[in-house]
Amino acid sequence: MIRRGLSRRKFLGGVAGLWGASSCGWLPRLAQAAAANGKPKRHCIVLWMAGGPSQLDTFDLKPGHANGGEFKEIPTSVPGVRISEHLPQLAERIDHLALLRGMHTKEGDHQRGTYLMHTGQTPGGPLSYPSLGSVFSQQLGADDAVLPNFISINPELALGADGLGPGFLGPKYAPVQVVDRGAAASPGNPETPDAPNEPRLGIDFLNQADGVTDEQVERRLAMWRARQAAHAARRGGEAATAHDTIFNQAVRMMRGEAASAFDLEQESDETREAYGRGTFGQGCLVARRLVERGVPFVEVTLRGQTLGWDTHMDNFSLVQGLSSELDKAWSQLLDDLKERGLLENTTIVWMGEFGRTPVINASAGRDHFPDAWSCVLGGGGIRGGQAYGATNDSGMEVVEGKVEVQDLWSTLCQAVGIDPETEIHTPLGRPLKLAEGFPVHAVLS
Prior knowledge:
Layout: H1 8-16, H2 26-37, E1 43-49, E2 73-75, E3 82-84, H3 88-92, E4 97-103, H4 110-119, H5 132-140, E5 150-153, E6 176-180, E7 201-202, H6 214-234, H7 237-255, H8 269-275, H9 279-292, E8 297-302, H10 315-339, E9 346-351, E10 355-356, E11 368-369, E12 373-379, E13 386-388, E14 390-391, E15 398-400, H11 405-415, E16 423-425, E17 431-433
Helix pairs in contact: 1-7, 9-10
């Protein structure tokens, strides 16, 4: 019997302890299935910058102005587009990226901003809205997928967990969290490319428990299915269906090669080094492996060593370190996806909950600033090699190409091949469009 209040993660973990992953020729069969279907599978990867990244020190520098700060801008592979000197590899790959320099939102609090950017909705009220990952997993995923349709790698829950879940769509579309399983043994493991304690990313309890035989597993599965069928016959309903769906998904993961997606020992040392040895770099490598295996939505969080991009103090030193880690991992992710023929079907989004103030505070930091900031799109469905929108010389306001959160959602929907006017329904049957903004057609391919 499943107890009330048992979280989806704990439930998946407990079930996963039953079975170990076995090796099989899974990836070739996935490729054959996609070819037989005749329609390429679409994917989305969100690179989430927890804390709110400084646009003035990454993609919208203001050289020569008092707000410009310490960093210099450098030319990119596209004439006229210039970005931070601490993103040199991305500068060479700007033809794959579209910079949205006119983001304008209305939430300057971490929790509220995280909710807004993840759900497209202002927090508050009785309705819990689904996150972008949950919506895209519903629209792009398959019910019988071996791996979950929505995977979140190294999430930052302290700065806004409410907007990361499935909301009224229910637990079927909740994210499965991939965490550093070595963190407990090595508390305070620094998230830097040359960290001495390399992260071990994965999902707990995917291996068969010690002392449990295959026959015992089969008997336990049979007992579960009998009890679940009896419960569904007596009461049924969405809760029973959700539990059954989650359970069967967990069993599929354990019986197939799913666990190997998180086994980075299968990658060469050269590849792992190219991504960077920190949690974010290795997380981006896991994201590539998940996309290869058909997962439609993956979010990877760059949190840094403390509060990530929440640089109220010592902004320039912190952003330089974060930029180095970002530059290495994101650039290699683009290269790998392109080499494998996956980039044209994988949309990448770089964003945080807001930007940072143009004015530098007394602690050499930048504070929260939702009025004018930057987001970056790339890959499938995106016309790269451009900067769309602009802020004024001080960076204080958007003067061209203003983009609201619903506009961003509409743009992303179109980029991955979803009609933004597609309706989903609340528990009371109220229809809601996926997005009600205006797509930025200039950045859509």
